[in-house]
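Continuing the batch. This is chain 6 of the set; chains 1 through 5 are on the previous pages. Same settings as before, nothing changed between runs. Recording input and output for traceability.
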Amino acid sequence: MNQRLSHFGGLGWFLRCCIIGLTLLSVTPSRTKAMAPSDNPPMAASFSSQELFSWFASAGDYFLDKKVLALANAAARGRTSDIATLLSDAVDVNARGANGVTPLIWTLVKQNKKGFEFLLQHGANPNLQMVDGKSALSYAAMHEDSWYLETALKYGGDPNLVNTLDNNSTPLVYSILAYRPSNIGILIQAGANLQLRDSEGGTPLIMAAAVNRYDVVYKMLDAGADPTIKTNYGTTIISIIRRTRVDPNSDMWAWRTKVINLLKGRGLDVDHGK
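Output for chain 6:
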């Protein structure tokens, strides 16, 4: 098998190394421990779709069945008539290739909107998870073009889909780590559970604070996120605010101030609380 397949988890490694020094795809590292308050936490950082999908090999390495391979290639090129012909020939729109890759995921990798939506219109499931627990919806949540996320949600994407192989991460967590503010707003509007806790008790709110994205923190607080929830290690959003530093000249400083004022307005002791 192509050597790149062995690095299928490399996307998570790239993200976690750039953001909080862990891997998104590994179930071994402890994300909440990395999220424990520190003096100078890293910030979530955006990255291009090319970087997002750089770890995928060629279609032929994933789809060994010739008809499924033809379906994946047709969708990746937006050839809807060819897709329709293959589906009428009983090719499974949700067929899984190596590592659990589906034609829909492959079409997202190749970023063909026409093929992506056509597959969804004909029964492709955006919630199907690969061997690492990621799905088309997971990748759409991290994509810089919100169209993919909106379209996946339109055709049955679950905004609360849990990846049990990655610390119970959800699409909202992935959008926070990739720093996609638009996608975060879309997921909140779609019903993302802001109180959903990962395997170590962390919430999306705590994750956003841990990577110093106070604009996202404010947005989630305004949408109803509970600031009093503690992780299994006792970490709260207040303890993160008190022990982390933000550049006073940055935009995040202004957002941090807004968050503090909002919390104080709700009666929380930000100055002395834990």
